[in-house]
Amino acid sequence: MAVTNTDNQQLKLKNKLRKIYKLSLDCPMDAGCPIKGVLAPSVDKWSIFCIYNLAYNEVLRFNELKAFIPGISPRMLSVTLKKLEKSHLVQRKIYAEVPPKVEYRLTKFGMEFSEKLVELNLWLFNKAPK
Q1: CATH class of the domain defined by 44-130
Q2: What value, to the nearest 5°, has the Cα angle with vertex 60 and ends 125 and 105?
Q3: Distances (CA, A) of 128 to 40, 110, 111, 121, 123
Q4: What are the φ/ψ torsions at residue 34 (nearest 5 degrees)?
Q5: Which residues contact residue 29 at a Cβ distance below 8 angstroms, ignoring those fewer than 6 apart?
Q6: What DSSP string runs through the chain?
Q7: Which end of the chain has fewer surrounding CB within 10 Å, N or C?
Q8: CA-CA-CA-CA dihedral for 66, 91, 49, 47, to nearest 10
Q9: Whether residue 76 has pLDDT greater than 90
Q10: Which residues contact residue 103 at a Cβ distance below 8 angstroms, ignoring those fewer than 6 apart?
Q11: What is the pLDDT of residue 45?
Q12: Mean pLDDT for the chain?
């Protein structure tokens, strides 16, 4: 029986899934696992909007970022930014001024992550069932 292109794609996917599963089992439970430490906290709707806006604008202050994300409360934005900072996707810079000035930007890793996230979202918009 001949192996089809679809069979090859399914086999490649299964091999990748096996690898991801093995890697995730070897990750420490508390930190260090990319799925638990980066992917899971960054794929909710507010995180995605924060990442996209910071990727597009490069540097934003809190209220500027809030203005770009309709419907987000100040508390939710604060929680989301802290979560993204903990995941090493966002960098926060505090200036010693009165009143205090705080700027947010994506880290180098965050910028690379945003590029992959954009590709995934474009794929979803083109392929997802309507």
Answers
A1: mainly alpha
A2: 75
A3: 21, 25, 25, 10, 8
A4: -60, -35
A5: 36
A6: -PPPHHHHHHHHHHHHHHHHHHHHHHS-SSS--HIIIIIHHH-SHHHHHHHHHHHHHSEEEHHHHHHHSTT--HHHHHHHHHHHHHTTSEEEEEE--SS-EEEEEE-HHHHHHHHHHHHHHHHHHHHS--
A7: C
A8: -110
A9: yes
A10: 59, 60, 61, 92, 93, 95
A11: 86
A12: 86
**Quick one: pLDDT band at residue 123, thresholds 50, 70, 90?**
confident
pLDDT tens across 88-116, in order? Answer: 999 999 999 888 899 999 999 999 999 99
What is the dihedral sign for C-alpha 106, 110, 115, 118?
negative
Q: What is the mean pLDDT of residues 47-61?
A: 95
Q: pLDDT of 6-24, one tens digit each? A: 777 888 888 888 887 777 7
Q: Among all chains, which residue has been given the structure tokens 């392929």? A: 127
The encoded tokens of residue 127 equal 């392929």
